[in-house]
TrEMBL record:
It comes from the Eukaryota. It comes from Kuraishia capsulata CBS 1993. InterPro entries: C-N_Hydrolase, C-N_Hydrolase_sf, Nta1. The lineage of its organism: Eukaryota, Fungi, Dikarya, Ascomycota, Saccharomycotina. PANTHER family: PROTEIN N-TERMINAL AMIDASE (PTHR11750:SF26). Pfam families: CN_hydrolase (PF00795). This is CN hydrolase domain-containing protein. One of its GO terms (biological process) is protein catabolic process.
Amino acid sequence: MKLRIAVLQMSSRLNQFRSNVAKAHDLVSQIPPNPLGTPQLIVFSELALTIYNFHSRSSLLPYCEIVGKGENFRMAQQLSIKNKSFTLLGYPEITEDSKIYNSAMLVSPLGKLVYNYRKTHLYESDENFGCSESEVGFQSFPIDFQDSAHKSAKEIIKCSIGICMDLNPYKFEAPFEKFEFATHCKENDVSLVLCPMAWLHSESPSITKQPGDWDIEMQEVPQVVDTNGDIRGGSESSRSSIEYWWLRLSPLLALKDKLITIVICNRSGLEDDVLYCGTSCILQLDTSKRKIHLLGSLGWKDEGLLFREVDTMLEL
């Protein structure tokens, strides 16, 4: 089975929701004509259509939505129906009892909400604006890409969503080698890993803790092989970000004879003293050969779209 994936990397602006939505539609419209059709999956970043760096609950509240309602949902719905695709969009969720979650909605090609994931590992910014942790933790679920109305899609793919800090140790306090999110994906035999991000650049003035602060052993982890030329942007920061994300997902190597697609959609740009590292990318892990391939990436400064058609099953 082939799967066409579009990843949108944006630097959304506060109080410019309609402009941010227009930018998203414009980026999708720039996908080159494909004889097989439009994307089957469109992936956005964490809190994609607002800023991420809110400083308080009161500053975030005006942008929060009840799941399946509101401007974020309508935008994802319109995009899905227009392109006959699934759309994954990070947004700020509020419940009827006023709990706030950092969430990601998956909307079907028919415009229906099919899944809503709530972030499990909170970053300090999430705590600043009063986010609650997911009560159920990491989850996996099937996506039936036949629903995308593309005749080439005939397989159900098992998926997990991890939002940014979910890849890191819980509160930066759990043992580094616990690999909570990756272990969940491994134990549930996941084939598609989707990661909306608001991941910081290593030189962001706001950083107090970063991966380099850990004593990380990478000798047993295969290095990322770039099958599409150099990482776009060519920066050491982009390379180190991709290698760290892969390290945090490397327990997936334990799965046998499997092709696993990893989609990472990050923000770019600057918010106050917070600098994001961009570098949205699509990785593919072939566990039969113990190889991880970079199928494409965006630069750390870019606002743009990454579009790839990927295999989802090994040819045995």
